[in-house]
Amino acid sequence: MNVVSSQVTRYRSIWISDVHLGTRGCQAEMLLDFLKYTESEYLYLVGDIIDGWHMKRTWYWRQAHNDVIQKLLRKARKGTRLIYIPGNHDENFRAFCGRRFGRMAILKEAVHKTATGKKFIVIHGDQFDGVIKYAKWLAVLGDGAYTWALSLNTGLNLLRRKLGFSYWSLSAYLKHKVKNAVEYISRFEDAVIAEVRKKGRDGVICGHIHHAEIRNIDGYWYGNCGDWVESCTALVEHPDGRFEIVRWSERQNLSLAEKKTCESSSSPTPGFLKSMVLSVRSIL
């Protein structure tokens, strides 16, 4: 059941990446909720939608993961322009780049023209990651450690829900507290902007590093749509050309808190319930 809104929000464009279907850390139910209550003319899947790396080691596929795929394809059938740009975890799909399946196109990279006329490169971004490019074995090793952190995150949030607390990402907290991780993100962003400058575009939209952000770097627009294992974020373009990062887990947490407050204020007090019971008994 959705706790954010009963109305669909319409955007011009939506970008999501790093869903990692096929892993225990994937927040498929939360993504389904997002897809249910949003519509757009363009929907970009910016890589690592299905985690082929993990599925080679361990098979894990819940019904919610299948539902995400079905929901995306249903949006395409109903008129949404679906653009799929494979990443490093779903790199096998790069063999199909340049092909179109109905209203879904699979591309190595895309150029998105915004409502204001600017042209942004849309890429996953792993080609600018030195570890992925030159030492893939190290990336796979690091992925194992990351999966372990996500499993801790899943267990922690099960406990938090039982105790009545909202969703919180342990892995995201640890990553943003580590100095080397912060430096890695900075180097990645600089490398991506260098590519934008070389190609003469106005900006870039990417994923890969699981760090949602919108900012100006040396006069170029940089946007990262984040992920759906830690922060549960999407990058959206409004009809008037404004961009925004939608943090779906935070919206759910806020709306859930409002719902609890509303239910608490409208719930009858124990004394009132007792009076009702006595009144019914007297009538009977």
Summed up:
The chain is an alpha/beta fold. The protein has helices at 28-36, 52-57, 63-77, 130-134, 136-162, 170-177, 179-199, 248-266, 270-283, and strands at 9-16, 38-45, 81-84, 99-101, 104-106, 110-113, 119-122, 203-206, 213-217, 220-224, 233-237, 243-247. The longest helix is centred in the middle third of the chain and has 27 residues, at 136-162.
Low-confidence stretches: 131-142, 255-284
Over the alpha carbons, how many angstroms does the gyration radius reach? 22 Å
User: Number of helix segments?
Assistant: 9
Proportion of residues in β-strands: 15-25%
Please, could you describe this protein's structure?
- By secondary structure, the protein is an alpha/beta fold.
- α1 links the parallel β1 and β2.
- α1 runs parallel beside α3.
- It is globular and about 50 Å long.
- The longest helix is centred in the middle third of the chain and has 27 residues.
- It has one domain: Metallo-dependent phosphatases (Purple Acid Phosphatase, chain A, domain 2), CATH 3.60.21.
- The chain has a seven-stranded mixed sheet with strand order 4-5-3-2-1-11-12.
- The chain starts with 8 loop residues before the first strand and ends with a helix.
- It has nine helices and twelve strands.
Which helices and strands appear, and what pairs or packs with what?
Elements: E1 9-16, H1 28-36, E2 38-45, H2 52-57, H3 63-77, E3 81-84, E4 99-101, E5 104-106, E6 110-113, E7 119-122, H4 130-134, H5 136-162, H6 170-177, H7 179-199, E8 203-206, E9 213-217, E10 220-224, E11 233-237, E12 243-247, H8 248-266, H9 270-283
Parallel strand pairs: 1-2, 2-3, 3-5, 7-8, 8-10
Antiparallel strand pairs: 1-11, 4-5, 6-7, 9-10, 11-12
